[in-house]
UniProtKB/TrEMBL annotation:
Domain of life, source organism: Eukaryota
InterPro entries referenced in this protein's UniProt entry, alphabetically: DNA/RNA_pol_sf, RT_dom
Pfam families in the record: RVT_1
Stretches assigned to the Reverse transcriptase domain: 34-198
SUPFAM superfamilies tied to this protein: DNA/RNA polymerases
Protein name, UniProt field: Reverse transcriptase domain-containing protein
Amino acid sequence: MNPSKAPGKDGLSAMFYQKFRDTIGTSVTAACLEILNGGRSVEDINSTVITLIPKTQNPVSMTDYRPISLCNVVYKIIAKVITNRLKGVMGKVISENQCAFIPGRLIFDNTIVGFECLHRLKINWRKKGSMAIKIDIAKAYDRVEWNFIEKMMLRMGFSTKWVKLVMNCVSKVSYSFMLNGEICGNIKPSRGLRQGDP
């Protein structure tokens, strides 16, 4: 974990955990294992601060900012453990058409498939029943419905214990906001995913 990343709501950076590993390592490991084994709720550490980073020199509208989620390091460890466990089965449960986020697949492959589809349409333009639809959903991760993720994972054959663990990470979250250097507010969302969620 990059030690220079911004800390979460608790103010403790990865550098802190790395520097004091000999002192707190056993306790952090025990806390992570307790959460991963279902003995403790992830909700205790799943508090995220959202802050805005300007994309341009002189931002004038909200689109000129990039929101980033600042998660606690212990939560990041748990999310990483779950993500690493998922990597072993991703290639089996994700369609070959999905190229992003799967080891050994390139997102560029989707561009080639798109060009192939357009080429096929161009060749067969006189035939009825052919068309292309391009959909780009803005802020797609913010719109993901949690019950869809849960039902999809169960349908794919993941155990209920595993699905519960993932869903706890995704749904037992609260958001606060960094405004003018102060953390304020507390929102419990009802859908959406953060970057880094399992």
